[in-house]
TrEMBL record:
Transmembrane segments: none annotated. InterPro entries: CTLH_C (IPR006595), LisH (IPR006594), WD40/YVTN_repeat-like_dom_sf (IPR015943), WD40_repeat_CS (IPR019775), WD40_repeat_dom_sf (IPR036322), WD40_rpt (IPR001680), WD_repeat-ST_regulator (IPR051350). This is CTLH domain-containing protein. Residues 1-58 are annotated as: Disordered. It comes from Tolypocladium capitatum.
């Protein structure tokens, strides 16, 4: 236990294939029509069969379904089929005006695009039909103009036409009075010395990159879908169907995408409910267990001085990091798996070569133990959290000895970071969590949880924070809205650090240790308790899900054991292939 560029237009700007470019330059969501007609109007003579067709398709609007199919066929390169469906149904994908707007944006004809935008009408509820451009409800024409002129400004800078770019900034962008800070930023780009410098600072890939297509995609969201379908609409709908089925699958363990041929279902027999192996090499209480980012290694630490590392195919012990003077409360793998930082009770942090086991450096002695570590995505730097109130957060680099203080005056009990590099969350020894911009080190906001937290973790999509609390409640917090979006109940808290984590296929689950020794697994989206597994005695301190295997997790506890959990079939396979020896395994570091 541990105390506390230019291209022929396709679907909303996607690039046509070489074969398609030889045809006429189609601009109706990428499909060249034999004869364009207005949205939903007759595209030629309808025969008796067409006039007898019902207006709905299994309850869905026939025109909407048909237009989505035309777009999808065009997107997939079935141009003749798309034109045939359009001819046969009498429905066109979009009007000539919408097609002209699309072409103007993709070709960089900014004055033509603005002229068409100026003639657009506002939609009421569903949006109008006919030959015109119809803006969606709530759309701001000036915002759309700003986006067009911003692209024009950036392209002028790219071509080093600074004088005209300045005229656009002063005479076209500034009068729209949109975002003042944005205008200041655009003004600063006038100082860029090269097109490459411009692209880097503006996070923009130039006129010949994807920027015009991205602009069209943004603009299309402001146009009524009744006249301009959102891009890749069928693919988006199908993805939503799949995600809905995943979200409601109680035992989701299938890493592959669900089939469209049948409803998705995962059998409980494939869920990790069986103990495949018990690792007894650590000795003493085990406080933390953590897989490497690729799932190929597993490391554990605790009340003894050693940190043990196993490979995860046979769970042979491959390393023992043994230079610690006291127990090790936490550890962190670098994203590339090359390094490990260990956070010791002897008040040092240590950087190790994870492949050789050699100690690379011992990071200064703090006044209190080191509590946690977060790596940067490039594996070249990391942030330490300590219980030393004078040095709660500090940044270190792999290849130098400099330490950069954050100047935060509170004890950091635990910390976590997001994979996109945006967030760093520190947990103090009261009931507060502190959310920082990981790049600028600026505080974004504080949150009072109402109870002391025991661990924090961030989801792979960098959107949600998982917090374990002393009172036995785990919460899922939206980092953007700051709202609690789910609660997980059923485990017990206490005065010691109990660690929880995300896991499973598509990170569909939340799992945690418990003061009573059990392992709790909840469905992340519904909050339903899926499994309660008898884990360790007297306390289960941490659970970690293998990021490369939805059917494997590891747990640890005060009983000095690390347990590997998987489904029944894999558990039997592990046990039959790896008979135990006196220390729990047929081979260890000592055997070598």
């Amino acid at each position: 236990m541990l105390a506390d560029g230019d291209a022929t237009a396709r679907s909303n700007g996607s690039t046509a294939t070489a074969g398609q470019r030889s045809a006429l330059p189609g601009v109706t969501n990428g499909a060249r029509k034999a004869s364009l007609a207005t949205n939903g109007s007759s595209n030629g003579d309808k025969g008796p069969a067409a006039t007898q067709r019902p207006s709905t398709y299994f309850g869905h609007d026939r025109e909407e379904v048909t237009r989505i199919l035309i777009q999808a066929l065009s997107d997939m390169g079935y141009q003749a089929a798309a034109e045939s469906v359009s001819q046969d149904s009498g429905f066109d994908l979009e009007s000539p005006t919408v097609a002209a707007f699309r072409s103007a944006v993709i070709s960089g004809s900014w004055s033509e695009a603005e002229k068409l935008l100026a003639g657009a009408t506002m939609s009421d509820v569903r949006g109008g039909q006919g030959n015109g451009l119809v803006l969606a409800v709530g759309s701001d024409r000036n915002v759309m103009k700003f986006w067009l002129r911003q692209q024009k400004f950036l392209e002028l800078l790219e071509h080093r036409d600074t004088a005209r770019a300045l005229m656009v900034l002063r005479g076209e962008l500034t009068p729209l009075y949109q975002d003042t800070s944005k205008l200041h930023f655009l003004s600063s780009l006038l100082m860029c010395r090269s097109a490459e410098d411009l692209m880097a600072k503006a996070n923009w890939d130039g006129a010949r990159g994807q920027s015009r297509k991205q602009l069209l995609s943004e603009l299309s969201r402001c146009i009524s879908p009744s006249v301009m379908l959102p891009e890749n609409r069928l693919a988006v709908l199908l993805e939503q169907v799949k995600q809905k089925q995943i979200d409601t699958c109680l035992y989701h363990t299938a890493a592959s995408s669900p089939s469209l041929y049948s409803d998705h279902f995962c059998d409980r027999r494939n869920f990790p409910t069986d103990v495949a192996l018990e690792l007894t090499d650590v000795a003493g209480e085990v406080w933390q267990v953590q897989f490497s980012h690729d799932g190929s290694k597993l490391a554990a630490c605790g009340s003894r001085e050693n940190v043990m590392i196993w490979e995860t195919k046979t769970f042979t012990l491959v390393r023992a990091l043994a230079d610690h003077e006291l127990g090790v409360g936490n550890l962190a793998w670098s994203p590339d798996g090359s390094y490990i930082v260990t956070c010791s009770q002897d008040k040092y942090a240590r950087l190790w070569n994870a492949n050789t086991g050699s100690l690379l450096k011992k990071i200064r002695r703090f006044d209190e133990p080191v509590s946690g570590c977060i790596w940067a995505s490039d594996s070249m730097s990391f942030v330490l959290g300590t219980l030393d109130k004078s040095h709660g957060l500090c940044s270190c680099n792999v290849h130098d000895v400099d330490i950069h203080e954050w100047g935060k005056k509170y004890r950091v009990q635990d910390l976590c970071g997001s994979q996109d590099g945006r967030w760093l969350v520190a947990m103090d020894d009261t009931s507060n969590i502190h959310v920082y911009n990981a790049t600028t080190r600026e505080l974004e906001y504080n949150l009072d949880l109402g109870a002391r937290a025991t661990s924090v973790n961030i989801s792979q999509d960098s959107r949600h924070l998982l917090v374990n609390r002393k009172d036995g409640e785990a919460q899922l917090i939206d980092l953007v809205t700051k709202n609690s979006v789910q609660k997980f109940l059923g485990h017990t808290g206490g005065d010691y650090l109990i660690r929880s984590s995300f896991g499973g296929a598509n990170e569909s689950f939340v799992t945690s240790g418990s003061e009573d020794g059990n392992i709790l697994i909840w469905h992340k989206n519904t909050g339903a308790a899926v499994e309660r597994l008898p884990g360790h005695f007297p306390r289960c301190n941490a659970v970690s899900w293998n990021p490369a295997d939805p059917c494997m997790l590891a747990s640890c506890g005060d009983d000095g054991r690390v347990k590997i959990w998987t489904n029944k079939a894999k558990a039997f396979e592990f046990r039959s292939q790896h008979p135990r020896s006196s220390n729990g395994w047929r081979k260890s570091v000592d055997d070598d």
